[in-house]
Write a structure and sequence with these properties.
Helices cover about 80% and strands about 0% of the residues. The protein is mainly alpha-helical and about 325 residues long.
Length: about 325
C-alpha cells in the first residue's frame, strides 16, 4: 500500500475525471459524426443526443453488471495492480491527455483508449520494469487494434448489402424515410455503447488508485460513486463537442447517405457492446472509422478517400508508443519531487 494524503488523492481523481471529460470531448465525433454529416440532426442537437446516451450507459450496467469488465482490464489487467503507485497513475493520465490534446488540435481521430493504455504501460514500465506488464491483457488490447476496425468494416458492408436487398422494392422516398429513423436509433445505440466502453477506462484507473492507496479494500470492484462520476464526466465532454474531428470522421473519409450512416453506427455498436461484454478496452474511434469505410466501400471503393483513411491509420500506429513515452517521462518527473 502506498500512502497518499487525502487532498492529493482527490486532486489525482480530478485529473482522472479531466481525462474522462477530454475523452468525451475528443471522441464526440465517434457518436455523432454520421448524424451530423448526413444532416439528420443539427450539431448542437447531435452532441446533446450523444451526451444523454453516454451517461445513460450507467443504468445499463446496473441491469447487466457483467458489462463492467473493461474497468477490470484497465485497472488490473495491463500492469500488476500491486505494482501501481499514485505516480504511475499520474504519468499514465498525463501521457494520455497530452496525446489527446495534440491529436484533437490537429483534427486527427486517434484513440483515447489506446492513449490511456500506452500511458499506463509507459508509466508502469518506468516504475517496475517490463516484468510488471500483464501480457494477456495487453495482447488482447493490441489484437483489438486490428480486429475492431476490421470487424466494424465487414459488419457495415454486410448491413449495407442485407438492407439493400430487403429494401430493393421500396421507392427512394420511402427507403430514405425509413433509414432516417433507423439511423437515429442506431446512433443512439452507438452513443450508449461508446459511453459504456470508454467511461470504464477511467473507472479502472480511479479504482486501482483507491486500491493502491488503501482507500479500497477486499475485492477489486468499481465503487458506484466512481462509476457515476465517470459517466457524468464523459457525457459532459461529449456535450462540449470536437468539431475538427467530426469533420474528418463525417465527411472527409467518405460522403454518407442515411443508409450508410445507419449501417456504420449499427455495425459499430455491435462491436462495442461485444467488446464490453468480453472486457476488451477497444478504440471507439477505430471501430467507427472502420465501419464508415465499410459503409462507403459497400457502394463503391472509390467513394472512400483512402489517403485520409491512411493518415488516420498512421495516427493509430503511433498512439500507444507516443503516449507510453510521455507517460514514462512524466512518471520520471514525479521522482524529482
Amino acid at each position: 500500500m502506498h500512502e497518499l494524503a487525502l487532498p492529493l488523492l482527490i486532486g489525482l481523481i480530478l485529473v482522472a475525471l479531466a481525462f474522462d471529460f477530454l475523452n468525451g470531448l475528443h471522441d464526440a465525433a465517434n457518436s455523432i459524426a454520421t448524424v451530423v454529416a448526413t444532416r439528420l440532426l443539427k450539431p448542437v442537437h447531435a452532441v446533446a443526443f450523444a451526451a444523454m446516451f453516454n451517461g445513460a450507459a450507467y443504468f445499463l450496467t446496473i441491469a447487466f453488471p457483467a458489462l463492467h469488465k473493461v474497468a477490470d482490464t484497465i485497472g488490473q489487467g495491463l500492469i500488476d495492480k500491486n505494482l501501481i503507485t499514485p505516480a504511475v497513475v499520474f504519468g499514465a493520465l498525463v501521457g494520455a491527455m497530452f496525446w489527446n490534446v495534440v491529436t484533437w488540435l490537429k483534427g486527427i481521430p486517434s484513440s483515447s483508449s489506446h492513449a490511456l493504455v500506452g500511458g499506463m504501460i509507459g508509466s508502469g514500465v518506468a516504475h517496475a520494469g517490463i516484468t510488471g506488464i500483464k501480457w494477456a491483457g495487453l495482447n488482447k488490447t493490441l489484437i483489438a487494434i486490428v480486429l475492431s476496425p476490421t470487424i466494424g468494416m465487414i459488419l457495415a458492408m454486410l448491413v449495407m448489402l442485407i438492407t439493400s436487398w430487403l429494401f430493393r422494392r421500396s421507392n427512394a422516398r420511402s427507403a430514405e424515410k425509413t433509414f432516417r429513423a433507423l439511423h437515429l436509433v442506431s446512433s443512439g445505440a452507438y452513443s450508449l455503447s461508446h459511453g459504456l466502453n470508454d467511461a470504464q477506462k477511467t473507472m479502472g484507473i480511479i479504482t486501482v488508485l483507491l486500491y493502491s492507496t488503501g482507500y479500497l479494500h477486499g475485492k477489486f470492484e468499481v465503487p458506484h460513486w466512481v462509476a457515476v462520476c465517470c459517466y457524468v464526466a464523459i457525457a459532459m465532454g461529449t456535450l462540449s463537442g470536437g468539431w475538427k474531428i467530426i469533420e474528418t470522421m463525417g465527411s472527409r473519409i467518405t460522403k454518407l447517405s442515411q443508409h450508410q450512416g445507419f449501417s456504420s453506427s449499427f455495425a459499430g455498436s455491435i462491436v462495442l457492446f461485444t467488446a464490453s461484454w468480453l472486457g476488451i478496452p477497444v478504440s471507439t474511434t477505430h471501430t467507427i472509422t472502420g465501419a464508415v469505410i465499410g459503409a462507403g466501400a459497400a457502394r463503391r471503393a472509390s467513394a472512400v478517400r483512402w489517403g485520409v483513411a491512411g493518415n488516420v491509420v498512421i495516427a493509430w500506429v503511433i498512439t500507444i508508443p507516443a503516449s507510453a513515452a510521455v507517460g514514462a517521462l512524466f512518471y520520471c518527473v514525479t521522482l524529482l519531487f
